[in-house]
Design goal:
The complex is a heterodimer of chains A (261) and B (293).
Chain A lengths: L1 H31 L7 H12 L2 H34 L1 H15 L7 H8 L3 H25 L3 H9 L4 H38 L6 H10 L3 H30 L12
Helix pairs in contact in A: 2-10, 3-4, 3-6, 3-8, 3-9, 4-6, 5-6, 6-8, 8-9, 8-10, 9-10
Chain B lengths: L3 H8 L2 H4 L12 H9 L5 E5 H8 L5 E8 L4 E5 L14 E4 L5 H13 L8 E4 L2 H9 L5 E4 L3 H8 L2 E6 H4 L5 E6 H6 L1 H20 L1 H12 L4 E3 L5 E3 H11 L8 H16 L9 H4 L3 H5 L2
Parallel strand pairs in B: 4-5, 4-6
Antiparallel strand pairs in B: 1-8, 2-8, 3-6, 3-7, 9-10
Helix pairs in contact in B: 1-10, 1-11, 7-12, 10-11, 11-12
The chains are: A mainly alpha (261), B alpha+beta (293).
Chain lengths: 261, 293
């Protein structure tokens, strides 16, 4: 029993430490500039109040909806083109240069153009999220596909495997870890771009819009509360959902429990 | 360019003429500018007075010390839309500045209210004025509520027309000079010199808009010329001159202006932006203005 509790504490203490560190910084900021920076108490009280407010959940829900469409599309497309590049070296050369160029453009700069071309609402923001997460996904899978074990490839060819069989029996299993890692790396890009796109305009609901609106009307406890919410949701999705998914799907790669050991 | 007086005073060397060594910092919106004043990084700025009221509500030490520009916000629609008055925008989409901005407050509290509409009757899109006019031209929205020079640029270069301008229908002192409490209380002479320079700039804007445009055009339009609807080239300076002429700059805050500010403060309460109505008179420090008489 005691060792179970110790194990659980070993897993969760870093989260408590990060939360405590950030809250201490917030409180010091409040003491230095009380008009501009709200206290920890005011921020937490605001969060508790808003958790019972349907408008708050609407902001969260619509952001999750945009992420829930744009991010999986990027994962599927990135994975597909990454594996395709592994199968066709000429396409790999093209894709690598294309990614190098496109990845240097911050995804958010597409938004003013997309607003005029696609109109307002969810679509331009979903496209920004897809752009943001596609390139790291494709690059990670491409690297994974190029690193497929040559012995395995040659063995499969000697046994008479054709391209579809190579894809199914060699490339897909061997690039699967890269797919999972790419999904985790892409998530950070997708989330940051989602919030930035919602802040830039074209929508009147979403976490990014909410934090900007709070700033417009000098509602600084609202600003801090939404910053906390944005960070908490991203941490839960990344550190709990995606990390657990990775460990479950790739359990054969982990000789121990890593940090949680 | 509702803050043209500040930029003109800077570009034309009027601050130096009045014995000030100023450092000019440009912001894309009043909501960002006011944070710099509240945070102590800036001494004063020209911005929408509603930003000042929002922070006064939170206990910030600020003073409204002078006038700048009477509100100019035009509602633009496409030429062939068949829309000739605001009420016809019911059920349509309109692009405007950020929710909670001065423009948004009067759009809801005056423009829509007088047309018998509410925000819920339309689909509102909150974007920058540049994106608003481009979206209107591209047919992505049915109306765009914008200030200068975007209204003039759009009317000269895009198939759009202005059906409403709040400055003509409901004049109010949109832009004012806001100073930190420290500047207003402890550096009165410096503040008065700053306002003297801006007053001179306002006089140039009113009496010689062509000369004023020659100083500030590059701050608003990067190109030397823009292409008009008929294919002819229009000098950027001419567009800025037209924008200056279309606006009313005023360094004075009158009793009627204060009354309008009180009305806007009440709109901010009604729209949930202020918790309680601010006493506008307590936020004013018109010592410089009184010394002009």
């Amino acid at each position: 029993m005691k060792s179970t509790l110790l194990k659980a504490w070993g897993r969760v203490w870093p989260y408590f430490a990060v939360a405590a560190f950030l809250l201490i910084l917030l409180q010091i900021g409040h003491w230095l500039k009380p008009i501009v920076i709200p206290s920890v108490g005011a921020s937490i009280s605001r969060l508790v109040d808003d958790l019972n407010n349907s408008a708050f959940w609407r902001q969260v829900g619509l952001s999750m909806y945009r992420l829930g469409i744009g991010y999986p599309i990027a994962c599927v497309l990135g994975g597909f083109f990454g594996v395709l590049a592994g199968l066709y070296p000429a396409f790999a050369k093209f894709l690598r240069r294309f990614i190098a160029f496109m990845q240097s453009i911050p995804p958010i700069v597409w938004l003013p153009f997309l607003l005029v071309v696609l109109g307002f609402g969810n679509t331009p923001i979903i496209v920004v999220v897809t752009i943001a997460s596609f390139f790291p996904m494709a690059l990670t899978v491409l690297n994974g596909a190029e690193g497929v074990n040559k012995t395995h490839l040659e063995a499969a060819r000697v046994l008479g495997a054709n391209k579809p069989q190579l894809l199914r029996k060699v490339y897909l299993p061997e690039t699967f870890p890269a797919f999972i890692t790419g999904a985790q790396v892409s998530f950070g890009n997708a989330w940051r771009s989602l919030v930035a796109a919602e802040m830039m305009g074209g929508v009147a609901v979403g976490l990014g819009f909410a934090v900007k609106f709070a700033g417009e009307i000098a509602d600084m406890s609202g600003v801090v509360m939404y910053i906390l919410v944005i960070g908490i949701i991203a941490s839960v999705l990344d550190q709990v959902v995606l990390e657990q998914l990775k460990r479950r799907l790739l359990h054969w790669r982990y000789v121990n429990q890593g940090e949680g050991k | 360019m509702d803050d043209a007086q500040t930029i003109l005073a800077w570009r034309a060397g009027l601050y130096e003429k009045h014995g000030l060594d100023v450092e000019m910092q440009l912001f894309s919106s009043g909501t960002e500018l006011i944070k710099a004043i509240v945070g102590g990084q800036l001494d004063a700025g020209v911005l929408g007075f509603t930003n000042g009221l929002s922070w006064l509500d939170k206990g910030a030490d600020l003073k409204i010390v002078g006038g700048a520009q009477m509100g100019f916000h035009g509602m633009l629609v496409q030429n062939d839309s068949g829309i000739s008055e605001v009420a016809q925008l019911k059920g349509k989409s309109v692009a405007s500045q950020s929710q909670g901005s001065t423009a948004d407050i009067v759009l809801n509290g005056v423009v829509f209210e007088n047309a018998g509409l509410t925000r819920e009757d339309l689909s509102m899109q909150y974007v920058s004025p540049a994106v608003a006019i481009q979206s209107l031209a591209a047919g992505q929205v049915d109306g765009a509520f914008v200030f200068e020079p975007y209204s003039s640029i759009a009317q000269l270069t895009m198939p759009v027309e202005q059906i409403y301008e709040i400055g003509q229908e409901w004049p109010f002192p949109c832009m004012v000079v806001i100073a930190s409490g420290d500047l207003a209380k402890n550096q009165t002479e410096a503040m008065h010199r700053m306002l003297d320079a801006q007053k001179e700039a306002i006089e140039m804007l009113a009496n010689d808009p062509a000369k004023a445009a020659s100083y500030i055009t590059d701050d608003f339009i990067q190109e030397d010329t823009l292409t008009a609807l008929d294919g002819s080239e229009i000098k950027a300076e001419e567009i800025i001159e037209a924008s200056i002429v279309s606006q009313t700059f005023n360094w004075e805050i009158t009793e009627q202006d204060i009354q309008r500010m009180e009305e806007v403060a009440q709109m901010m309460v009604d729209q949930g932006i202020l918790n309680t109505k601010i006493d506008v008179k307590s936020a004013l420090d018109l010592s410089w203005q009184q010394s002009q008489k």
